[in-house]
Specification:
Length: about 290
């Protein structure tokens, strides 16, 4: 990669952002495309979003990703497209003549990984754990995949009700049902659901266990990742004999969708990028049969 006076700058804003893998794969995408661009991380403190947006604009930054804790506030401060408006958060922003334009590619990242798992999902039951910000992007993707019944299970019942209300209003064709936060209820839905999804942050801390024993057949997908690939959720799912992937492929895929949106080009090769990062992290390659030949 060459950096010169014509290099276009992209980046990610978040707090903390030092652990982010985005610069690694985004610079890989840039290198493979031959573009004169670079992607860096910008640590932006929670109360610094507004001056940061002005500063990025003044410096001519062409586009950036947004991560925790700015996704919801950035939504308010940019011109969000229809997908981002349904999700209520943005993760990708680009410069336009009319100011900062924004979208949300998390749902595309999720959908691409689900497609990579090659499960028969049309009309099928899906069990979703969590009712926070990430669950809204997952919901958007599942609605587009025309799944049958979506059971949502969350510890805090008020947040669960709010998500169910939102889902019923935004996606009337999707059958969305609340599920009690208890083992028996989880067992019942596991028996029929080929896909389980976790969007809770349980298991991000060392030693934390997933609150339920999982069962049934099919796959399980975590929206969060750990460098070793073993989240509490993927461990619980593998224990049940399910194929399980953590959030790394989804992370790479949402980044590839952001790259395509910034540059108005085709999606870069996510599988090559995934294998490269897995190797760098020293972890076992995950199985995504629908992500192309190797
Ligand atoms: P994100 O934007 O990553 O979704 P969030 O909006 O803070 O983050 O949501 C976090 C999710 O993880 C919520 O579903 C939360 O459940 P509650 O609504 O019950 O708080 C869930 N979560 C976090 N820690 C949890 C724990 N120890 N046990 C169960 N659920 C947990």
């Amino acid at each position: 990669m060459k950096i010169d006076a014509m290099t276009t700058l992209y980046g990610i804003i978040g707090w903390p952002v030092s652990h982010s893998l985005s610069p690694l794969f985004q610079n890989g995408f840039i290198e493979h495309s031959g573009k004169n661009a670079a992607y860096v991380s910008f640590p932006v403190a929670p109360d610094q979003l507004e001056p940061a947006l002005d500063g990025l604009w003044a410096l001519g930054v062409a586009g950036f990703n947004v991560t925790v804790p700015h996704k919801e506030q950035a939504f308010v401060r940019t011109q969000a497209d229809a997908d981002a408006r349904l999700i209520g958060a943005v993760n990708t922003v680009r410069r336009s003549d009319a100011g900062w334009q924004a979208t949300n590619t998390d749902w595309q990242g999720f959908r691409s990984v689900v497609e990579g798992l090659q499960l028969p999902l049309q009309g099928a039951d899906v069990l979703l754990f969590g009712a926070g910000g990430t669950s809204r992007a997952v919901l958007h993707a599942l609605a587009s995949l025309q799944v049958g019944r979506l059971f949502i299970c969350n510890r805090n019942p008020d947040r669960l009700t709010a998500l169910i209300d939102h889902a019923r209003q935004a996606y009337p064709a999707l059958s969305c049902l609340p599920l009690a936060w208890e083992q028996q209820a989880v067992d019942r839905v596991c028996a029929t659901a080929p896909l389980l999804v976790n969007t809770t942050s349980v298991g991000l801390k060392d030693g934390q266990q997933f609150p339920f024993v999982l069962s049934g057949a099919g796959a399980a997908m975590d929206a969060v990742y750990r460098p070793d690939g073993d989240t509490a959720f993927t461990l619980a799912a593998r224990e049940a004999g399910r194929m399980a992937v953590d959030g790394l492929p989804m992370l790479i895929s949402q980044g590839a969708a952001a790259f395509a949106w910034w540059h108005d080009c085709a999606m870069p090769d996510c599988l090559a990028s995934l294998r490269h990062i897995e190797e760098q992290l020293g972890r076992t390659p995950c199985h995504l049969p629908g992500w192309g030949r190797e």
